[in-house]
Structure formats: C-alpha cells, structure tokens
Please model this.
Amino acid sequence: MTSTLWCQKAATYLHRLCVDIPAPWPEPGRASQSPGRSGREGGRRVGSQGNRAATDLFAAAVASFGFDTQSLPFDCVDWSHDGADLSVAGALFEAFPSPYSLGCRVRAPLLVVSTPAELEAADLSGRIVMLRGEIATEQLMPKNFPFYNPDHHRRIIYLLETKVPQAIIAATSRDLQGVGGIYPFPLFEDGDFDIPSVYMTEEEGNRLAERAGQEISLHSRARRIPATGCNVIARKGRQAASDMRLGKHPAQGTDRDRRVVLFAHIDARIGSPGANDNASGVVALLLLAELLADYHGSLGIEIVAMNGEDYFSNPGEQQYVALNAGRFDEIVLGINLDDIGYHKGSIAYSLYDCPAGMADSIRRLFSAHQRMIEGEPWYQGDHGLFLINHTPALAVTSELLPELMAEITHTAKDTVEIVDPVKLVTVALALRDLVLHLDRATA
Ligand SMILES: [Zn+2]
Model:
C-alpha cells in the first residue's frame, strides 16, 4: 500500500473519532456560551455515548486485524450542565459549573479566601466561599486520585470538607502545567468532591470580591449521571494466542508472557474534540494494528486504548494497573502515544529507563524516519504507569507540546485541522519497525 493510502486511512480514522462520533449531552440543553457547551460538544469524555462509540470502533478495528480483543468495563460518572446564575442584590456575575460538580440552589453571605492560612482560620459554615489568588493558582488534584496528590492540595480539600461551606466560587486564570490552555480553568474537577462549585475569570472574581459579606445567590444547574466506560486491550503474538486458548485473561499471562505494550488514551477532555489529544495516538495504534496484521512473532504485542487520562479519576489507568499488579516485569517495553500529530514541528520521542542496547536500537530505527527527533522527557502522561512500575518506557508526543499546552490542548481548538495525518503514519511505521526489531532481539 502506498503512503498516500495510509495517510487517507489516518485522515478517515481521525475524522470518525473527532467529527462523526461526538455525541450530544445526555439531556437536551439550550445552546450556551459557557465552557464545554459550545460547538461540537460531547466528544469522547469518559462515560459519554461518544466515548463508548470510540472504544467500540477501536475494538472492532483491531479485532479485524487479527488481534485477540477484549473490552473491559468500569463504572464512572458522566456529567451534564445547563449553566449557572450568580447574583448579588440584582447584579449578575458570570460563573460556570465546575466539571463533575453537583448542582445547587443556595443563598448565603460571601466570604473571600485568598491563602491557605486564611482558609485554616475561616469559619465557612452557612457561607458561600470564594477562593481566589494564591490558593487558586493550580487545579486541585481530585481527592481520590491515586498517582499524584500533593499534601497542600489534600489539605485544602480536607479543610473545605471539614468546614462545609454552602458552595464554592473559584476565581482563576490559567494553569498551563495542570490544565492546558483553558481560561479560566476549573479549580475543581472532581466527581468525588461533593461541595457544589462554580468558577469564573479573575476579573469577574475581582468584581465579586467587592461584595464580600453581602448575601449572594447561586443556582448551578449541573448533575452527575451514572455511566460506564471501558479499556480495550488487544493482543497478538504466539504467547498471547495460546493464553487466549487457555481462557486466561489477557493481562494475566505466565512468566513467559513477554510483551511490548502500546498505550494511547482514547478519552478526550470534557468540552474538547481531542483531535491531537489524543485521537492522534489512537489512530497511530489503529494503523500499527493493520501493519502488524500478519505478525506471528514470539514476542507478545499488547495494544491498549486507555480510557481515562483526561478524566478526574483515571479509571482506565487504575484498571490497567490492578490487572497487571506484580506483572509489569513481563513488559519488555511500554510505549505511550499522546499528542503525536501536531502539524507544526517534529514528532518527539523520549526514553525512560531503557537498557543501553535497546535505547541505541530505538534511536537508530527512528532516525530513518523523517521528522522524528529525540525530545525532552516529560512525565504527565500514561507512560508514568510504566515508570512507577520500573518498566522501560518510550513516550511519543509533539515537539511543540509546550505551545500546544498553552493554547490548544483541552480546548475546543483541538480539532482535526491541527493534526497532520502524515505524522500519524510516520509513527505507525516507526513503531512497526521497533516491534519487529524487539521480536528478533528477544527471540
Ligand atoms: Zn493526552
């Protein structure tokens, strides 16, 4: 097949994942300008209809290329909202429900808190609290997030849950590291945190702070919806096939279950079409699966559509880690594809704890492909699962990731127009070379 045909395949997959699939919100809502409700809302957020359509598409495609494929379900919550009304003595303020927050209809005096020390000292009962300034500079990690949760975040959550305000208003600007290019960013994005909250811009927060002590009324029309999602795990190779015949779970092989594992997260951030983040990685895995349709090597290949990287509790990641507890040493190399197709700049790969010989081979194989360079290591991706389990890892992303994070990632701007299908084909071909090399090297 010519590379033009592969590029067409890549473009078709991308379109299906980002344009055809996006499902409506689970309830008919008025069109609104608030974040997450504009344009092609819905996308592939975990728990949504679009997310299930994406995992179904992935599972059907990889199965058609001869992979033993399983969709492993988990419970989650989807979320819907229809905006929020906030007013003080007839004056209106613009606020948005925090993703995954409960809704509320409350009336109480406003208390403004700017620092952790002020929060420690504050009496919040019977109040609506506004968090702004120093205490609202970075998104707080979800309370049950298992992989990273700094003490100062936990302390803020603990104090709020102990002091029980009626509701929380967060006035924020940007958090490029934690959230990407969203302005304002939601301080809370946590379906396990039960104090209703909304967020607003810093400017709106300054205006509202002048009303401290006055009675304000807040009506947030948000609701949580019980839902399910799944990881898709697809396997090929001699050992994987024999495991399947023995009825073993794909992630519970034997000591000889040596395999290369490839991740791409298939979910998208709420409110974003998620074309580069991360339909791009998913499409590369689909192309790779087809390139390996005739693979019969002895090294197992495991391709995973990971579901939850951009969701508050990382349910797919938690499921994968639980399934593989004590078995990460069977993984010869873990590969994560995330944000790989930005049309500007090159494709950037980075290596983590790879044995010297393997690292040399990867560099040699990848140098044969155009616009693939070795970039800076980064740690905010699913390859972190390999690192914390002491497994050699390779991550592939876009060279200009910082530029993407500042302006595009996690926003409505992450559309198919910013993704170059040629880069997705390049990554698939480079990974095919690598997988075949690893099979020979580990035989
Ligand atoms: Zn991502």
Remarks:
- Confidence is low (pLDDT under 50) at residues 26-40.
- The longest helix spans residues 421-442.
- The radius of gyration is 23 Å.
- The first strand starts at residue 68 and ends at 88.
